[in-house]
Design brief:
Blueprint lengths: L17 H13 E3 L12 E7 L2 E7 L11 H19 L7 H7 L6 E2 L2 H16 L9 H6 L14 H8 L7 E4 L4 E4 L12 H15 L5 E5 L2 E5 L8 E6 L7 E7 L2 E7 L4 E4 L2 E4 L2 E2 L4 E2 L4 E8 L2 H25 L3 E8 L2 E6 L1 H4 L4
Helix pairs in contact: 2-7, 4-8, 7-8
């Protein structure tokens, strides 16, 4: 890993697509660290912040009790910046020279060499696609653009049925293949386009977490654009406390969870949508139908062992909705929390596994 000091990078447009806005706009506003003010005399934790992937990141960890163990904050920041820049250069759809962009432009159907990291994230994506019957699909990008939520600037409106059908022909996770030793990707259709917005940010959180552990830091919280992974204890000697806000447009806390050796991601559709002729069109597109979802699920939060998993499952359950999503979450043993819009109110649903993280 390159640990040469770098300037804090300007926000990269890696995740400026449908799923980026879904995760970034909601999660960044929805997940807040819950502080305790009654122990102000305790040493404040080390805090490192920066810009990455079109958003910001925050890393926190307690001051070491071992007086001989000190950390160079700026060196850590430089190493984290370099690590995240590498993730960006592999998985960005906005960097024309990234591995993913070059694969998306590739017009042949033979194997295209990529890093093991990119191959691993794509392979994980395909697993979630199969587990969800296609609700999670990293080839959904053309549909996102068609409905006016993607990076391609188009006039928002309801596409013609023929446009949806034609675009669906360019979508389908079964057309993607992965292999290792060395890493490579292959697509059955040259026009297939991959967008890792719904999973790569979580992967970045996991990579930063692993880097901290390699430096002997085992009590930490890492957050990128609202996706969180925490381990050990905070500076108060307690589990990290994360708040999930009420999806009403404000910042009121709906639920607080205790997180240690776990990751958390939230997905929702109440901050990025448009209305035409009195009908609301969500930016959450179902790749199976080619249309925005129409269910009443406002947001869903998933707690998992790593952030890439939580990231992907949150998107999956958001696509499936409160009924089918809750059923899959329970069947899969997920710790998931659903906030469902019921008229002017919000109704909570949760899996048994989620209850373990409550106060």
């Amino acid at each position: 890993m390159n640990t040469t000091p770098l300037k804090t990078p300007v926000p990269s447009p890696l995740f400026k697509s449908l799923n980026f806005y879904l995760f970034l706009a909601l999660a960044f506003a929805s997940l807040w660290l819950v502080s305790c003010s009654d122990r102000a005399a305790l040493p404040e934790p080390v805090e490192i912040t920066g810009a990455t992937m079109g958003t910001t990141y925050t890393v926190k960890f307690p001051v070491s009790k071992d007086a001989a163990k000190t950390y160079d904050k700026e060196s850590l920041r430089a190493a984290i910046d370099a690590l995240l820049e590498e993730v960006n250069h592999r998985m960005s759809t906005y960097d024309p020279d990234s591995e993913l962009s070059r694969f998306n432009r590739y017009t042949n159907t033979d194997w295209f060499p990529v890093s093991d990291d990119l191959a691993r994230v794509v392979e994980a994506s395909l697993i979630y696609s199969r587990s969800s019957g296609g609700a999670f699909d990293i080839t959904v990008g053309p549909l996102v653009n068609l409905w006016g939520f993607g990076p391609t600037k188009v006039e928002r409106g309801v596409p013609e049925v023929k446009e949806i059908i034609d675009t669906l022909r360019r979508v389908g996770y079964t057309g993607v293949s992965v292999k290792y030793d060395p890493g490579a990707l292959k697509k059955a259709d040259p026009s297939l386009y991959l967008d890792l917005s719904a999973i790569a940010k979580g992967f970045g959180v996991d990579m930063v977490s692993k880097y901290l552990e390699s430096q002997g830091i085992y009590d930490y919280m890492v957050e990128i654009g609202g996706e969180v992974r925490a381990d050990g204890k905070n500076h108060l000697g307690e589990p990290w406390r994360i708040g999930i806000s009420t999806p009403g447009g404000g910042y009121e806390i709906q639920k607080v969870v205790n997180v240690s050796h776990a990751a958390l991601a939230t997905s929702g559709d109440y901050r990025n949508y448009y209305e035409l002729d009195g009908k609301r069109y969500s930016h959450t597109i179902d790749a199976r139908t080619g249309r925005p979802v129409t269910h009443g699920l406002a947001s869903v939060t998933v707690i998992a062992e790593d952030c890439m998993e939580a990231d992907a499952w949150a998107t999956t359950l958001m696509v499936l909705g409160p009924d089918e999503g809750l059923e899959l979450a329970v069947r899969s043993g997920l710790a998931a929390f659903f906030i469902v819009k019921d008229g002017a109110d919000f109704v909570e649903q949760m899996t048994p596994g989620f209850r373990d993280y409550l106060n």
